[in-house]
C-alpha cells in the first residue's frame, strides 16, 4: 500500500456531515447503551491478535446482560433503539486506510445509504432479527482497498451491535468495477472469519478503527 | 411434526462451526473458532475429552474415519491451512462393541469413559495454500478429501504407518471450495463452491477426474449431502441464494438392459455422469443456508442457516391425477416442510445441522434420530422430532 490509489479524493467539510441534532437527547439511553458496549470492546492489541476469539466471551456477556436489561426496561421499543444515524456514527469515524480522513469525510459512508429494518416479535419467534445494510461508495471505481474498507465497516458493526443484527455490507451499485465480487466476499461469513485471523490485515483494520469514538 | 428442544451441551467460549457424530459410539465431536475439538457424550451430553494445541487458527470442520478398528480416528480441517489426523484407542473396557454394534446386543454400560487414554496426534497434512474448509473420509475409510480457499480439492490415501500420500489435486473450481462429501457407498466425491457450482469426481483408470458439474445455484453453495444410495443417487445442496436443490443422477441411456443395471452406474467411455436438477425445496430460509443433512435412515432433510432457523423437509407422495408429470405409477413426489423452529439459537446464526442416533443414558440406541445444531453462540443444541 505504498502507492496512493486516489491522491485527490473529494472531501466533505466536517460541519456538513450528518448528525443528530434535535433527537440527541431523546436517544440518550440507547446511545449510552452503545457507548457502554463499545467501552467493553477489547483493546486494539487483542483485536489485532485475536479479534474473534477474544470477543464473544467478554462481549457476549456484556450484550446478554445489556439486552435483557433493555427488554425489561423498554420492552415496547426495544427493537427500535438503533437507527441509521447511530449506525452512521459508528462507522463514519473509521479512518480511510490511505488518507488521514474519516470514511464520512470522504463520503465513502453516507447516511442515505444505510438501511435498517427491525423484525416484529411474535409468539412463535420472540427474538426476531434486525437487519442493517450499509452500501459503501469507494472514492474511485477501481479502488483496490474497497475490500479492506468494507471489512473494517463489517468488523466495526459486528463488534458494536447486539448479536440480533444481521449485517450486510455492499459496494454501492455502479460505484466500483467489481461491485459484485467485493460484495460477495464481504458477506461470506467464512472468509470474514478467516480474514479476522490474519494478523497483518487485522493490524490495518485496528488502525482504521482506532479513530472510532 | 414439530421440533422440540431436548437440551444443550456445555457452552463453548466461541463460535461452533460443526458437530459430527461418531460412526458407532455415542459420541459427537465439535469444531470451534477457539481451536479446540470437544468430544461430548450423546448419553448425557457431558464433555468427554478435548483436543487442543494442534492448530494455530480456527478448526472449521472435522470427520470421523469409518471402519477404524480398535481406535477412533478424527481428521480436523483448519484455517491454518493444515489438516490434522488424531487417534485414540477405544478403551479396553469400553462398553461398546467396536464393529457391528447392534443396539440389541450391546452389553449394559458401565460408567467408565475413555478418559484414561489421550488423543494421539498422528500426522499433519500440509499442502493447501490457504484455509482448509472441509474434510471427509471415503465410505471405506481409504481416502481422505480436503478442500480449501485455494480453490483446490485434494484426495489423500492412507499408507502404512501414519503416512498419507496425495493421490489427486483437483483444481476444477474457480473459487473457494466450501465443502467436500463422499457418496455413502461409491468412491464418488462431491465438492461445493463459492463459484456457485457443485462438482463430482471419481477415479478413472489412474487419475481422479471431474465427472459432472452441477449448475443452477445463483450464489455460493455452502453445503451438500447425499441421499442414502439405495436404488437411486441423489444429492441435496444448500446455498447463499437461500434455496435447497435436489440433484438426480440420470441412468445412462446407452447402457445395458435396465433390469441388469446395478445401482452403481457402469462407466462409459468418457466416464462422465449426467446429473440433473430434480427439484427445489419449498423456500423456508431468509438468510444464507449454511448446512444441510439428508438423513441416511429416515430420508428427511434438515437445513439451518444465518436466519437462525432449523427446517425439516419430507418427500411425500401426492396424488398424481392433477399432474401429468408423474412417475409411471401415476403418483408424484413432492418435498414439504414438515417441521421448523425459528431462533433455534436465540438471535444467533446456526452454522451446522446434523442428524444423529438418539442414545439413552445407558448407552443404548433408541432407534430414532435427533438433530444437533451448532451456533455462533458457542452452543450445541439437540432437538427431537415429535409427531
From TrEMBL, chain A:
SUPFAM superfamilies: Fe-S cluster assembly (FSCA) domain-like. Residues 70-82 have a biased composition (Acidic residues). Keywords: Chromosome partition. Residues 58-82 are annotated as: Disordered. GO terms for biological process: chromosome segregation; protein maturation. Transmembrane segments: none annotated. Gene3D superfamilies: 6.10.250.1280, Fe-S cluster assembly (FSCA). It comes from the Eukaryota. PANTHER family: CYTOSOLIC IRON-SULFUR ASSEMBLY COMPONENT 2B (PTHR12377:SF0), CYTOSOLIC IRON-SULFUR ASSEMBLY COMPONENT 2B-RELATED (PTHR12377). Belongs to the MIP18 family. This is MIP18 family-like domain-containing protein. It comes from Orbilia brochopaga.
From TrEMBL, chain B:
Pfam families: WD40 (PF00400). Residues 252-263 have a biased composition (Low complexity). The keyword rRNA-binding does not apply. WD repeats lie at residues 52-86, 125-166, 170-202, 214-247, 282-314. GO terms for cellular component: cytosolic [4Fe-4S] assembly targeting complex. SMART domains: WD40. One of its GO terms (biological process) is iron-sulfur cluster assembly. Keywords: Repeat, WD repeat. Residues 95-115, 249-278 are annotated as: Disordered. It comes from the Eukaryota. Essential component of the cytosolic iron-sulfur (Fe/S) protein assembly machinery. Required for the maturation of extramitochondrial Fe/S proteins. Belongs to the WD repeat CIA1 family. This is Probable cytosolic iron-sulfur protein assembly protein 1. It comes from Orbilia brochopaga.
Amino acid at each position: 500500500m505504498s502507492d496512493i490509489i486516489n491522491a485527490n479524493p473529494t472531501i466533505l467539510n466536517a460541519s456538513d456531515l450528518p448528525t443528530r441534532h434535535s433527537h440527541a437527547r431523546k436517544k440518550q439511553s440507547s446511545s449510552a447503551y452503545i457507548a457502554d458496549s463499545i467501552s467493553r470492546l477489547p483493546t486494539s492489541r487483542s483485536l489485532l491478535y485475536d479479534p474473534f476469539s477474544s470477543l464473544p466471551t467478554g462481549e457476549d456477556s456484556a450484550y446478554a446482560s445489556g439486552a435483557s436489561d433493555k427488554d425489561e426496561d423498554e420492552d415496547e421499543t426495544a427493537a427500535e433503539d438503533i437507527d441509521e444515524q447511530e449506525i452512521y456514527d459508528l462507522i463514519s469515524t473509521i479512518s480511510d486506510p490511505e488518507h488521514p480522513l474519516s470514511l464520512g469525510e470522504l463520503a465513502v459512508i453516507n447516511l442515505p445509504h444505510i438501511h435498517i429494518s427491525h423484525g416484529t416479535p411474535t409468539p412463535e419467534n420472540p427474538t426476531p432479527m434486525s437487519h442493517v445494510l450499509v452500501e459503501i461508495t469507494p472514492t474511485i471505481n477501481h479502488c483496490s482497498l474497497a475490500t479492506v474498507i468494507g471489512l473494517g465497516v463489517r468488523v466495526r458493526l459486528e463488534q458494536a451491535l447486539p448479536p440480533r443484527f444481521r449485517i450486510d455490507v455492499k459496494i454501492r451499485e455502479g460505484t466500483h468495477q467489481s461491485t459484485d465480487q467485493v460484495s460477495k466476499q464481504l458477506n461470506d461469513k467464512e472468509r470474514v472469519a478467516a480474514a479476522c485471523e490474519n494478523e497483518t490485515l487485522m493490524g490495518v483494520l485496528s488502525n482504521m478503527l482506532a479513530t472510532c469514538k | 411434526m414439530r421440533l422440540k428442544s431436548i437440551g444443550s451441551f456445555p457452552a463453548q467460549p466461541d463460535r461452533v462451526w460443526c458437530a459430527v457424530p461418531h460412526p458407532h459410539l455415542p459420541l459427537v465431536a465439535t469444531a470451534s473458532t477457539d481451536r479446540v475439538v470437544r468430544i461430548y457424550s450423546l448419553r448425557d451430553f457431558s464433555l468427554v475429552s478435548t483436543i487442543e494445541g494442534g492448530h494455530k487458527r480456527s478448526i472449521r470442520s472435522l470427520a470421523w474415519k469409518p471402519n477404524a478398528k480398535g481406535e477412533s480416528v478424527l481428521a480436523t480441517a483448519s484455517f491454518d491451512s493444515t489438516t490434522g489426523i488424531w487417534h485414540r484407542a477405544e478403551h479396553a473396557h469400553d462398553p461398546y462393541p467396536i464393529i457391528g454394534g447392534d443396539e440389541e446386543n450391546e452389553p449394559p454400560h458401565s460408567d467408565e469413559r475413555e478418559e484414561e487414554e489421550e488423543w494421539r496426534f498422528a500426522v499433519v497434512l500440509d499442502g493447501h495454500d490457504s484455509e482448509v474448509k472441509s474434510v471427509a473420509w471415503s465410505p471405506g475409510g481409504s481416502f481422505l478429501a480436503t478442500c480449501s480457499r485455494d480453490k483446490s480439492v485434494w484426495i489423500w490415501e492412507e499408507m502404512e504407518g501414519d503416512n498419507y500420500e496425495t493421490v489427486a489435486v483437483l483444481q476444477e473450481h474457480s473459487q473457494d471450495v466450501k465443502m467436500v462429501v463422499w457418496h455413502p457407498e461409491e468412491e464418488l466425491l462431491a465438492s461445493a463452491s463459492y463459484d456457485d457450482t457443485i462438482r463430482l469426481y471419481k477415479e478413472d483408470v489412474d487419475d481422479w477426474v471431474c465427472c459432472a458439474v452441477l449448475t443452477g445455484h445463483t450464489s455460493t453453495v455452502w453445503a451438500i449431502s447425499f441421499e442414502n444410495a439405495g436404488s437411486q443417487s441423489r444429492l441435496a445442496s444448500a446455498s447463499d441464494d437461500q434455496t435447497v436443490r435436489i440433484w438426480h443422477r440420470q441412468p445412462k441411456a446407452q447402457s445395458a438392459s435396465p433390469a441388469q443395471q446395478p445401482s452403481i452406474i457402469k462407466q462409459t467411455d468418457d466416464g462422465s455422469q449426467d446429473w440433473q436438477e430434480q427439484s427445489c425445496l419449498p423456500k423456508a430460509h431468509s438468510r444464507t443456508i449454511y448446512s444441510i443433512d439428508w438423513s441416511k435412515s429416515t430420508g428427511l432433510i434438515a437445513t439451518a442457516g444465518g436466519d437462525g432457523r432449523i427446517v425439516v423437509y419430507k418427500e411425500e407422495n401426492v396424488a398424481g391425477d392433477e399432474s401429468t408429470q408423474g412417475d409411471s405409477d401415476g403418483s408424484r413426489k413432492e418435498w414439504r416442510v414438515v417441521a421448523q423452529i425459528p431462533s433455534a439459537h436465540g438471535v444467533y446464526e446456526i452454522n451446522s445441522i446434523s442428524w444423529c442416533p438418539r442414545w439413552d443414558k445407558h448407552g443404548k440406541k433408541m432407534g430414532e434420530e435427533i438433530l444437533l445444531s451448532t451456533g455462533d453462540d458457542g452452543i450445541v443444541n439437540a432437538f427431537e422430532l415429535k409427531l
